[in-house]
Design brief:
CATH class: Alpha Beta
Distance between the termini: 42 Å
Number of domains: 1
Helix content: 25-40%
Bound molecules: ligand PBG
Shape: globular
Radius of gyration: 20 Å
CATH topology: TIM Barrel
Structural class: alpha/beta
Strand content: 15-25%
Number of helices: 11
Mean pLDDT: 98
Low-confidence stretches: none
Largest sheet: 8 strands, parallel, barrel
CATH superfamily: Aldolase class I
Length: 328
């Protein structure tokens, strides 16, 4: 008698498939990235990210309420800093009236229970488009970490629940944690971009914030001296373990889809929540192919998000969050 075991019994119809399904996407999985700009009444679409927008503070209120009502309860803030405020030392990063600080307050006032996480990195503020202070063609590590610690304290003062350092300087989690403790922000968390790779998938994001490394003499054209080499696996574990030892509450792997082997590896290795960032280039690819009629947008989106969660993501930062929740 052949075969006794027939796995297809569990696939016979949608009812049985849903009974045995291992991975279910829910609104609680998502962290929603938001791009903020100066101005009034601004809602501008990002050219390389169709149906994704930069919002001015007045309009972000409506957006945040909408997210909350959809069950999306965590946001990750990025600001587009006006060119005239960019420098190479960080004069603007701790401005208590800066765009980020005002954005945090606005969102917390509008929606007090929304979890507000903030991007902590220098690139939106850097006239060279780097995540750290640049000197003689090098990105300075320790000086940048100090600056990021000041930035983190400033975000905490404005009301951020979590700071999310996305810069990949060595030792910055400890520097930030100590600064937060010293200033009394013992309950402000750190979500560390622990295994962040030097990836070509960040292109559309750099359009969104106008934050790409500038093309100038003695300015590195890429971020390979601080973000990880995408060929490496063991290094991702080392980076993540160090960040946990230094005080990270949540760790992250970034980008998503090309790095799901790393996600699983880290999930098996650590016992803090693991976030995955499905980045701008991943979003752009799906939107572009769907616009051509070459892929089924919703089906591909759900397949990718489910794959990210199946790989081990406890939190998914994704530009698809709203699209996905509308389908659930
Ligand atoms: C900046 C930062 C980047 C992203 C998040 N934070 C870009 C970069 O490192 O150059 C990328 C996010 C995305 O592509 O969606 N530190």
């Amino acid at each position: 008698m052949y075969p006794l075991v027939r796995n297809r019994r569990l696939r016979k119809n949608e009812t049985i498939r849903s009974l045995v399904r291992e991975t279910i996407i829910s609104p609680n999985d998502f962290l929603v990235p938001l791009f903020i700009v100066e101005g009034k009444g601004v809602k501008e679409e990002i050219a390389s990210m169709p149906n994704y927008y930069r919002y001015s503070l007045d309009l972000i209120k409506k957006e945040v309420k909408e997210l909350w009502n959809m069950g999306l309860r965590s946001v990750l803030l990025f600001v587009k800093v006006p060119d005239e405020l960019k420098d190479n030392k960080g004069a603007e990063v701790t401005n208590e009236n800066g765009l980020m600080q005002r954005a945090i307050k606005t969102i917390k006032d509008t929606c007090p229970e929304m979890i507000v996480m903030t991007d902590v990195a220098f690139d939106p503020y850097s006239k060279y488009g780097h995540d750290g202070i640049v000197e003689n063609g090098l990105i300075l590590n320790d000086e940048t970490s100090e600056l990021l610690a000041e930035m983190s304290v400033s975000h905490a003062e404005a009301g951020a629940d979590f700071v999310a350092p996305s810069d990949m300087m060595d030792g910055r989690i400890l520097t930030i944690r100590e600064a937060l403790e010293d200033e009394g922000f013992t309950n402000t968390g750190i979500m560390s971009y622990s295994a962040k790779y030097a990836s070509a998938f960040y292109g559309p994001f750099r359009d969104a914030l106008d934050s790409a490394p500038v093309d100038a003499q003695n300015i590195p054209k890429d971020k390979k001296t601080y973000q990880m080499d995408y060929a490496n696996r063991f290094e991702a574990i080392r980076e993540t373990q160090l960040d946990i030892e230094e005080g990270a509450d949540i760790v992250m792997v970034k980008p998503g889809l090309c790095y799901l082997d790393i996600v699983r590896e880290i999930k098996n290795e650590v016992d803090v929540p693991v976030a995955v960032y499905q980045v701008s280039g991943e979003y752009a690819m799906v939107k572009a192919a769907a616009a051509q009629g070459w892929l089924d947008h919703d089906a591909v989106m759900m397949e990718q998000l489910t794959a990210i969660k199946r790989a081990g993501a406890n939190i998914i930062a994704s530009y698809f969050a709203k699209d996905a929740v509308k389908l659930l």
